[in-house]
UniProtKB/TrEMBL annotation:
Residues annotated as domain Helix-turn-helix: 41-89
Organism: Chitinophaga sancti
Residues in coiled coil: 4-31
Lineage: Bacteria, Pseudomonadati, Bacteroidota, Chitinophagia, Chitinophagales
InterPro entries: DNA-bd_dom_put_sf, HTH_17
UniProt keyword rRNA-binding, yes or no: no
Protein name: Helix-turn-helix domain-containing protein
Keyword set, alphabetical order: Coiled coil
SUPFAM superfamilies tied to this protein: Putative DNA-binding domain (SSF46955)
Lineage: superkingdom: Bacteria
Length: 103
């Protein structure tokens, strides 16, 4: 076993930084938890499976503003209600077997 000795002040500084990081994490969690409790959110894969579309078609929906989305930590999320509304309205673009869209 390796033993490393550091000054007590350095250890206290590390503890304080870890506490601050924990507080930031808890704050962010509280900030966004109410948003996620109000509405069920889906990621890209869940939307593609639910709508039976390819990732490229989903990208087209995003690019054309057909399906609204929110980005959190570089990941896209979609409201379940928006996905259901699009399904009920009929998908504006259909994909063929090779994943390309037909307009």
């Amino acid at each position: 076993m390796e033993v490393i000795a550091i000054q007590k002040s350095a250890l206290e500084g590390m503890k304080n930084e870890l506490k601050a990081l924990l507080e930031l994490t808890e704050s962010a969690t509280r900030k966004y938890s109410s948003i996620f409790k109000e509405e069920q959110w889906l990621d890209n894969q869940e939307v593609c499976l639910m709508m039976n579309i390819t990732k490229r078609t989903l990208q087209t929906y995003k690019d054309k503003g057909v399906l609204p989305y929110s980005k959190l930590n570089r990941k896209n999320y979609y409201k379940l209600s928006d996905v259901r509304a699009l399904l009920e309205a009929g998908q504006p673009y259909n994909t063929n077997d090779n994943g390309f869209t037909n307009k």
